[in-house]
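TA notes, week 10

Several of you asked for a full example with nothing omitted. So below is the full record: structure tokens for the whole chain, then the designed sequence directly under it. When grading your own attempts, check the secondary structure regions first.
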């Protein structure tokens, strides 16, 4: 026998507490009766607080509560093998880790806010495979497509602007890495979500987007930042922070490049969403776009299906509860 929810068994301590309550209540009732009248008068009134009746009623309630807790824990025994087919989507997330993602026009900064939004997206996934690519000057797959969301979270947590040593941005390299990630995937619908501020310093991202379209890949872009932009604050090796400067000694201001991201999405038949405080955009893309995709069979396997037996303790508990309510506390001596 096994329990589907063994955590409910921890509440059996409430039954013990109930026992202490009944002992206290019975003794208190005895004291009250004795204080109300003398023993001779009680005999003459032929009223008895029956210890036996009290114990029986408590036992009925005790086992009724125990039965309810056992039913909640869902006892199971006996099983049969069933073939389980799991269906889902394939989603490749591409996250910008260039130094511009440290800009704080989105709090706490663009990269930290992105990671929080991805965590929220994971809560929506039910059997969908998800992969992770990080990019700056180069692109690298840190987590291939997987349904192991715990392992994915570990890869996500490790992301920072030092993941890719070259701190400039190369969107085309990121798109090509996403295409390679889908090479061995037989899926009718292939989705890539790029989370970036859209600044591009190398390569031709529109040409890369055309190559993705030819492979049947739709690219969805989430623009992170503001059009006005802000100076890039980076940590110093000696501690504290400083603002990033270019080779000429001028402060670098990072701005959201929506125009480029819109063109990339349009080229592949995807969509562009600008991240905001209220709606970052990932949930919107999943609910309104990806959820409409035809899900494919990810894997099929044989699993044990245990037979539910919670009905037995539940029925016993209900019967005991009815008996307890009908059983009187007091007896009348003839």
């Amino acid at each position: 026998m096994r329990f589907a929810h063994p955590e409910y068994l921890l509440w059996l301590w409430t039954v013990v507490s109930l026992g202490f309550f009944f002992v206290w209540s019975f003794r208190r009732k005895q004291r009250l009766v004795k204080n109300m009248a003398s023993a001779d008068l009680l005999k003459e009134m032929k009223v008895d607080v029956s210890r036996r009746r009290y114990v029986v009623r408590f036992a009925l309630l005790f086992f009724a509560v125990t039965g309810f807790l056992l039913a909640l824990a869902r006892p199971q025994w006996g099983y049969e093998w069933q073939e389980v087919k799991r269906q889902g989507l394939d989603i490749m997330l591409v996250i910008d880790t260039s130094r511009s993602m440290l800009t704080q026009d989105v709090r706490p900064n663009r990269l930290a806010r992105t990671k929080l939004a991805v965590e929220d997206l994971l809560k929506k996934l039910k059997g969908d495979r998800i992969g992770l690519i990080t990019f700056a000057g180069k692109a690298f797959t840190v987590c291939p497509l997987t349904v192991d969301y715990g392992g994915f979270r570990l890869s996500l947590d490790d992301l920072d602007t030092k993941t890719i040593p070259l701190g400039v941005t190369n969107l085309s390299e990121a798109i090509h890495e996403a295409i390679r990630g889908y090479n061995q995937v037989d899926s009718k619908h292939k989705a890539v979500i790029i989370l970036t501020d859209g600044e591009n310093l190398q390569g031709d991202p529109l040409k890369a987007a055309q190559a993705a379209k030819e492979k049947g890949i739709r690219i969805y872009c989430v623009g992170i930042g503001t059009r006005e932009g802000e100076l890039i604050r980076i940590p110093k090796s000696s501690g504290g922070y400083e603002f990033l400067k270019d080779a000429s000694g001028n402060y670098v201001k990072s701005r959201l490049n929506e125009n480029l991201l819109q063109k990339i999405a349009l080229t592949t038949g995807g969509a562009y969403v600008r991240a905001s405080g209220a709606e970052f955009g990932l949930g919107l893309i999943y609910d309104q776009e990806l959820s409409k995709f035809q899900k494919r069979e990810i894997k099929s396997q044989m699993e044990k299906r245990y037979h539910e037996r919670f009905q037995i303790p539940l029925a016993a508990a209900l019967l005991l509860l009815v008996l307890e309510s009908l059983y009187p506390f007091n007896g009348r001596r003839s």
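The first strand starts at residue 2 and ends at 3. Use that as a sanity check on your answer.
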